[in-house]
What does this fold into?
Amino acid sequence: MMSSNQKKLGFIINPVAGLGGRVGLKGSDGKLIQLRARELGATPEAQDRASDALRSLKVSIGDQVELVTYPGEMGENTAANCGYSPVVTGEIESGKTTAADSRRAAQDMLEHGVDLILFTGGDGTARDICEAVGESVPVLGIPAGVKIHSAVFGVNPLSSGELAAEYLKGEIQTLQSLEVMDIDEEAYRKGIISPCLVGYLRVPYQRQLVQARKSPSPASEEGTLQAIALDVIDHMDDSCYIIGPGTTTQPILNALGLKKTLIGVDVVQNRKQVTLDANEETLLQLLENQNAKVVVTPIGGQGFIFGRGNQQISPKVLSKIDPGNIIVISTLEKILSLGGRPLLVDTGDREVDQVLCRYMMVITGYGNRIVYPVKGGRQSRG
Amino acid sequence: MTQDIRNYRITEGKPNLRRFHQARWDEPIIFELNQPGQRGVLLPRAAAEIKEEVGDVLASIPEMMRRKQHPALPEISQAQVLRHYLRLSQENLGADLNVDIGQGTCTMKYNPKVNEQLARLPGIAEIHPLQDEKTVQGILEIMYRFEAVLKEISGMDRFSFQSQAGSQSIYTCAAIMRAYHQANGEADQRDEVITTIFSHPSNAACAKVAGYKVITLYPESNGYPDLDALKAAVSERTAGLMIANPEDTGIFNPYIADFVNVIHEAGGLSFYDQANANGILGITRARDAGFDMCHFNLHKTFATPHGCGGPGGGAAGVSEELAKFLPTPVVGFDGKKYFLDYERPESIGKVRSFYGVAPVVLKAYAWAMSLGADGLREVAEVAVLNNNYLLKKMLEIPGVSAPYAEGKHRIEQVRYSWQELYEDTGISSEDIGLRAADFGLHYWTSHHPFVVPEPNTLEPTESYTKDEIDEYVGVLRKIAEEARTNPDLVKSAPHNSTIHRIDDHDTLDNPEKWAVTWRAYQRKLKQNKNR
It folds into this structure.
């Protein structure tokens, strides 16, 4: 029987995730593409990956969790195959599920008061979940999509399952706001990559990157971000500071008692707000008669510092700024998560990119810098 | 009929893995064994006439220095004490018990017992650092002579043995760097120290303690940073470079002299971290590469025991130009007698009491002299050979890799990665470490943050035999197989070790819950009850 402190896990599978990958369709968004993928012989892998994750979850946590899921291929089948008797909610039209079903499922899980949503899919699914629930409930992805640019996924299905179990058992208590990225698949199929930052999800902290034993991670992650913010603030002069999007830049404005547009660009000067959510034109106007510095942070797992999620800071804007006035900030963990790959720029203007391709100092703590290379993002993609 | 006993240990000509099982005693803390009135040794009461002659001994101690209460020590008999500590020792994987290859970077080597005996001779064990220097000429001479050995090994001009640990030596050098720039009137301007991400982490830490900002360089695929990365970091704010070579990856930066040059041209000083110099003894010298300072951990390279069997000892060496900044006192010789030189107006002061950890310096000196110059070089050569044999064996295990400088030899250690195994099976390096305990082997896992994913650093030094290296690799190979065939067994390890798993890390991480002394435990217990 269920005990009152039993944890609830929301479990969602996007059954068509990953459909287009193997057959070279660069994604699975949209009904026509899914049809085309099936014609090309694609079979959905999402169920297999989801059951890998559920099995690993079961090894770790057993029956101490109640699953809440959607009917049929959206979770019910896989949960049952893995030996769970889930609470099934909602309705779907089997074989014809869409993005709207993922969004609805996530909302329903939220209403059921789940402790964590574990979903199977790629960037498109992450985006749907993000749009549906935002940061109101912890979420973790089981990677099964063609596009995995978002940082909200486990390394593989096994580790997603394990991480979910550790979170539900209370062994991991820290949540981190991580980027949900999506790219325009239509453009991607034509060879144009323009991922954008869609938003953030609250994700259980993956332990291999933190000093989990030596210092409790909640303090260390939050403390590091505050230390970085204080370093930036202590070195501020009377230039105007263009602050890029992200949870790494947010503490700078918080420490100054100012608002921050999480996925937008804000401007401060002399510790006061100049503009909230500025666009390219606003930035260009500001740059007409004054010196400016830019503060940006790389996108987790990818390393883009310009050209992804902060297109407002356009080549035109950047060409008016001395490269020495670009301040890159990041936790050391985020830099290390790049696995030695360089930071990337893809502003859309080759000359501007070239000027930025150099060794840059990245602020990783108060009085701590790492020297890290920046390269053009476009040519580095295969 | 007599059977060949080796049949039990060998299958098809190869040794079986050990069927190890560690003792578990549930031994209480010694304070809990307290039985009022028990004694280890009962001394006879003094005879009346002696008492009369001596008078009230306690009265000769000033009132303010006399205890009001007895010390709260456990009262316990000798036999119980022996059993207590022997049991505890059986719940350990000590350096004389297990093959310590898994503590890479620590340079776990054989600490010759004859040197321990030397250090316990009354002539060294019973002297006191406050004795008049005329009465401790022997240990001063040994310090003076050992300094000469280290000068030859490093090419530096002066050494201090004052620090009691490696990091204290590194801090000494960071403080000398600050004193040097202060003397030149540049201390305020030069506030940045450059290091690399695979250098000994104490470099960054000690630079920070000395008040510096730290700039860290990241390696290229060859394992060391590009010279251009260094140039991007160097400026008029550069105080100096603090770097290890080889770094924790076991990769030697062949452009190290160019690095030093770039720093010198910018007006900075260069410090060579030689905490672990085991792969380069007698082969390269810090001063020859242009370094201004270096240090050695005597308890690593020079075969004195690490902290728990310690104490440890550090040796900080500097060029002639920087000698005036060394801690006070240093040991001198005027042609007739050895003396302690306190007349050092520009010294950074003291980093520790007195002038050096005498028994440690003695043991290190004895070790170096027993080997001689050729022997020291042979230490490095055998350590490097052992390491490259181990590297080849390790890379035969599916799921393991040695990131950076692929296909090349390493110096004395390698930081391996189990990332591939982790991605295939979900078994992490930490899981492997816990399972290794089931075979009586220690395996170090706290490489945080993980620059190399799922890291594991192995260092066989010169001390382990080929069979022991084979045994170590054999265990890791077995665990990697288990990860694929029976991952739950690995995930739930250790099974044959004293302690299973500590699931509640909060008790270790939370200052309100941990207690490192009996007194602190009592106090915190009381606080909890009052809540």
